[in-house]
Design brief:
The chain has 644 residues and is of the alpha+beta class. The protein is built from 24 helices and 18 strands.
Length: 644
Amino acid sequence: MEFFSQRELSTFSTRASTSYDKNKEEDKKQFTTVRTLYDKLGYLAEQIQEATFPEGAIKIRRNPLNTTGTIFMPYLWAQVYPTKELAEQKTLAFTVSVDAKRYVDIKIDTVGLKDDDPIRKQYLEWRGDIFNSDIVKLFSFEDVLTLDWEQLINQMAKAAKGMLKDYYQFNKTVDRKEENMDSFIQEEFALNQILYGPPGTGKTYRTKNLSVQILNGTPGHSREEIKRQYDDLYKQGRIRFMTFHQGTTYEDFIEGIKPVLSADQEEEDSTVHYVIEDGVFKRMCVEASQEYVKLQSQEQSSVKTLTFSQLYDELVSQFEERLEHEETISIPQKSGSPINVVGTSSKGNLLLKHEDGQREYTASKSRLEKLFNAIDDFDNLPNIYSFFREVIGGSNASANWAVLNQIYKLKNDYSQDKKTAPQKSISYSDKLRAFERIDWSKVNPDQDVPKYLLIIDEINRGNVAAVLGELITLLEPDKRGGATESLEVTLPYSKSNFAVPPNLYLIGTMNTADRSVEALDTALRRRFSFTEVGPQPELLSPKAMIVSLLNMEVYADLNWQEEPYHSQASNLYAFLGVDRAAVEDPIRGSLPDQGERAWEEEDLAHLNVSDFTGVQLDSLLKAINNRIRRLIDKDHMIGHAYFM
């Protein structure tokens, strides 16, 4: 690429802050000249980024006109970020710019802050006079023209490296918004909220954005990045999605008794038995609560439950491996006489027999876990028969003691080696038992732990009062586990204690064309925060539709004339009644670098409303909804999604 020229710099300086008329040939020529200068500035920024921050990123505006397309800008800029993460934060950048005051510079600068912003004020005080600042490197136009690309890039890259320590030091100050993101989210996003509005307004679409903001604290990403983060969170089990309908019941949401076939459905001897099965919300509560289980002390029941599960699973694994090799596994009882491990049941319980005995004993995992939680000092147990009878009802005391003895030996072996039991994935049943044993009085609801979220689409289509049951009270922030007025209830089927963890968020969506907010149960309305999501006709403006087409991923690797982009663009331009050349000619050659940024409406600042003579969907939608609102009500308006 050719270096900066005297003509380009002079044209830019002369035309800065002057009006632009696209119908004047001279203005169009000078626009092209300044646009070329912008492309060269972009090249300079790219080279500085590659030389200084190979893992970094850049952002370039590329449009020499203001947002209305009527004034030449007095300042051309590109932002260089040391890392892609810092580029996503968009708080502080190394800005490479050409200024109409006849200099080219590289400096540390804030991003997107007005001069009255407290952080911007602090930055300006820190920077001081731009002509005598340690975080600004200036080159007059005259000095620039004495250099070549290599010399200018080297000098600017060296200056950027010299400012790097200052950059990170001040970024800590600027980054206070990021450091306080969790508290910001707590204030901005209620634990329980419902998005309501007419159909087609993007309520379900918006739940993904909200989910990522609440759980990751990273608003402002592209849609592709939001979807990627959402999918990652879903795979981690931190997000779940369900839709209410007329058949949704308490048993689906909390817990219920469900029929289960004991064998393959196609077998003649299949029998039906009934089990208590947890619903979607209860399962999310169990998963979210594990973050607090991890923080509790080793002596608390919830933690002991998981410790036992890991030890028991490891012991069973060792026994099964030995049984496969046809070994005889003999373990001592309390009396000293041996008892043999002969196998495991279909439910994972250990089967034992006395030597030369015929009777088979079962040492069940659930009973052993109760004993493990109840024992403080295994080596100094009182009479095991009375103690075991008190805890589990007194069955097979000798066999259960023999297995527990092996579990405690395994625990001691790991303790002596300063190791923990192998960290196998914890089953849901183990998590459930830990959840039921959490001491919520020891939980700090303000503790910074990973958050979980349940999305309930079409929440008003179900019988909300019947589906939520006693949960309606537990949802309140001050009734959650660990809160000042924390409440627990006993569930009707499992008879277990239940509390809602403070790190679980609920987002519901509600279609007001089916049912208005006023028709909802008053108790529900009091416990949820309601956010109206109305039609957004601005998303259907001609410029918005063109930008949407330009940013489609399927066209990312195509040039302007390649299919299917060319045909799709032609159809859209014909629909909007705009000349293709008027749209594309000023922006050709300035394609945003893939992965760095997307096209924005400001890139089309050279287009005016009068350039579009075809159908304008934004105006059409406004007219339709104004009519509906007058004749019916706003709850029955039409959403913008119907036109997209």
